[in-house]
Amino acid sequence: MASCSSEDSSNQEPVTPQGELLLVAIDTAKVITMTEAGTNPVVMLNRLTNTSSYFSSLSISPDAGKIVYDDYQTTSFSPDLISTRQIRVMNADGTGDHIAYESADTSVSFGAIRFCSNNKIFFVEETYWPDMSRKLHTVNADGSDLQTLQGQYNVADVTTDMNYFLLQPTAGSSSLAVQIIDRSGDNGAGSLYHSEPFSGIDEYGVGSGVFTADGKLAVIPYEEGTDLKVRIINMATRTSSDITVVTGLSGGWLSYHLAMAADSDRGILTVTGEGYAKSKSYLFNLSTNIVAAPFENNDENVLGVYIH
Question: CATH code at 56?
């Protein structure tokens, strides 16, 4: 989630073909698939039971065979409130949907879900009331072997080998920065590997970043003036470069969601906000700096499109 704007325009060039992409989106409490052009949406899973049903994030397994997602349901209201907070796993064709983790605490929210390379699922479990707490978990796709990792980092993403954490942007006394944590540091408690400054950027102008599937890059969306860009951090050299994805932002609130494909090169940025009747998604290449003309999603409830 971020701030500021409307839009529009990109380089208006096709993304270089590198094999067919799998696009998966959340629409309230539905998982849908679509073509690379955003057409022919197909509902693979529908858990929409009332206005309190929703998913907030998902992750596709490295082999594209499974999808993990967080599920929030409220089936009645006070004083007989019944809520469920679950991490669920389904096959990519929508079959085999099952619970991998469940919390009885109705104040719980989940974040940073990642289907890792060893078939482990990483996720963050947070509560904000009555006290702030944060737990970093891993669990097998079948729900077995739940483990809690050291630390209470505000994680945005984890590498698929789970060696590094990418943290949510934090505002300091003079600048905004995104930190990367090496989990092997400080006897397993984690230590700072890299801090990426975003000088002159508004506190809400930097979004949640992600690692590429090979763990070689961290990619972070952010606003600069009337442009929406991605910052690419090379994990080996700890240097960075930028790609402009959207130009001509014009004011008003804006939110965006970033996802990277399994090839560690192609990404998708989904943008919505004031002035958008429906969200738009922009495909881009890190290696060529080409940004495709955007496609409009099915409706305003599609806030994030994922790519494999």
Answer: 2.120.10.30
